[in-house]
Amino acid sequence: MSGAWLVVCLASSLMQDTDPKPQFKEKYFPQIIDHFNFNVMGNGTYEQRYLITDEYWKRGSGPIFFYTGNEGDIWEFALNSGFITELAAQQRALVIFAEHRYYGKSLPFGQDSFNIPEVGLLTVEQALADYAIMITELKQQLGASACPVIVFGGSYGGMLSVYMRLRYPNIVAGALAASAPILSTAGMGESKQFFQDVTSDFENYAPECRDAVRGAFQRLQDLAQMEDYGRIQSAFSLCKTPSSYKDIHQLNGLLRNAFTLMAMLDYPYSTHFMGSMPANPVKVACDTMLGGADLLHALKDTAGIVYNSTGDLTCFDLYTLYVECADPTGCGLGFNSLAWDYQACTEIEMCYESNNVSDMFPPMPFTEKHREQYCSKRWGVIPRPGWLKTQFWGDALSTASNIIFSNGDLDPWANGGVRSELNVFEEANDADPASVIKARKMESDTIAQWTVTVVKGCSIKYFNLDIYTNLKQVHSFIVNQVTLWHIL
Ligand SMILES: *[C@@H]1O[C@H](CO)[C@@H](O)[C@H](O)[C@H]1NC(C)=O
Ligand SMILES: *[C@@H]1O[C@H](CO)[C@@H](O)[C@H](O)[C@H]1NC(C)=O
Ligand SMILES: *[C@@H]1O[C@H](CO)[C@@H](O)[C@H](O)[C@H]1NC(C)=O
To answer: In a mutational test of the pocket of ligand 1, which residue from 28, 31, 40, 43 has the highest number of ligand atoms less than 8 Å from its CB?
Structure first.
């Protein structure tokens, strides 16, 4: 899911921020290393990084917007959340971005953090406890004990926001979760869903695009079957000649990952990942796939959109550009990828596979059995399927409250999240175009009332941003909702 955090908060995809960037101060919080065992680490602490800005804050009474950091450097998230900044300015909120333990600079054991057993304190529960303690202590330090806390996050960070509200409702008044795959990561998804959704993004642009991709992978497979490794090397500008089934598997993984990233980052403006991704990468990819005379070269150039965005790549190095891990949707590179790999080996279930039937990629099975083998070899752990669902409720969320889920329909993570928990709000959502148009015309005071109804009438709010073509309306819903949580 590495690229997944880039599935920007509802936030930046919704509203291009026009405001100047807030001036975050970078700070460190002495955090308990082990919240759940009083003996092993005793009262030992580590330095947990967080960013804070009080430039919008109505001191002492404005709400606190707390970003539950996910799998990456906290600055990356803070600099990509224009919507939250805007909301904070309107609501006069204090804004805090907390870094997740074992990511960025928040390494409990420094360079040794990814050794066994040091890595063992990387769990969802420890991360939530970190946030709960940080919120509680910072509120005290800042004279903010009366200020309601609203947590927010995207992707895995969105899952954490939801969990914070479930686990620590005494501390958190509400949660705003964007593209949070809380069901699929709890083992309640379908293994083929993710790559099927990635495929749909390309197919929806042009069915021929899907066919071309499938055809190119087929050509590659034919060459591999003939063990024509020289042709494969030249067609894909590989640094080394592949020589085994393992190398071809790696090449397939690297290529598939390029499509995954482009689907996740399919925004109408350019984004940054390993250099920069062009605006509308799916379109760019399909134009490349369909423009080349030779399918294999077209496939290579399409992968280049991701791996060679700088134009500096002289050859593709199979094992450094992409690292296979317990998350078939990608772990990224560097330290952060180790942490995510470990999480995918323990609580977070990511058993997605491609099959060339419901998707356009070569069959690459990744079952619970594969996961177990990989994880016990890599980290000495056996995953516990079902544990996340047991702990964090799965889809049995009817007694939860004050959670907003948002999804973009093009986002391949959307189907792993909460889409079906319909309610008052969703009914309005389901309406025919005429009522949508009518709804759009609603005056803001009507909308304010309507959100109150929603809050009273049901617990889970779910947005389909694509039905809400009027972004201002969605925006206004969220603003009103957050105001309400603030007041309550
Ligand atoms: C841990 O506890 C000991 C004994 O009470 C105390 O001396 C020490 O300062 C504590 N360390 C931290 C980091 O709180
Ligand atoms: C994918 O499926 C198609 C049929 O839809 C088949 O012709 C092709 O050989 C398959 N490709 C691979 C790589 O398995
Ligand atoms: C990377 O892009 C540059 C500029 O488009 C191109 O000249 C080069 O051949 C590409 N590298 C590879 C390995 O395809």
So the answer is: 43
Give pLDDT, residue 156: 94
Ligand approaching nearest to the C-alpha of 33: 1
At 336 the pLDDT is 93
Q: 192-381 is classed in which CATH architecture?
A: Up-down Bundle (1.20)
Residues with CB under 6 A from ligand 3: 237, 304, 308, 311, 313-316
More confident residue, 446 or 294: 294
Preceding peptide of 117 cis, ω within 30°: yes
Residue nearest to atom 3 of ligand 1 (CA): 43
State in words which class domain 23-187+386-480 has.
alpha beta
pTM, 2 dp: 0.86
Task: Count the neighbouring beta carbons within 10 Å of the beta carbon of residue 465.
Answer: 19
* The residue type at 144: A
The residues spanned by each domain of the chain are 23-187+386-480, 192-381
Whether 218 is in the pocket of ligand 2, judged by its Cβ within 6 Å, is yes
Q: Output the CA 226–ligand 2 centroid distance in Å.
A: 16
Q: What tokens appear for 312 in the block?
A: 């500096």
Evaluate if residue 16 carries a pLDDT over 60.
no
Spell out the residues 6+ positions from residue 211 whose beta carbon is closer than 8 angstroms to its own. Answer: 360
Give the mean pLDDT of 294-307: 96
- The label of the residue with tokens 């002289």 reads 314
Atom of ligand 2 nearest to the CA of 362: 13
222 lines ligand 2 (CB under 6 A): no
360 lines ligand 2 (CB under 6 A): no
List alpha helices for 265-396, DSSP H: 281-291, 295-307, 318-321, 335-345, 368-379, 387-392
pLDDT band with cut points at 50, 70 and 90 for residue 485:
confident
Atom of ligand 3 nearest to the CA of 237: 13
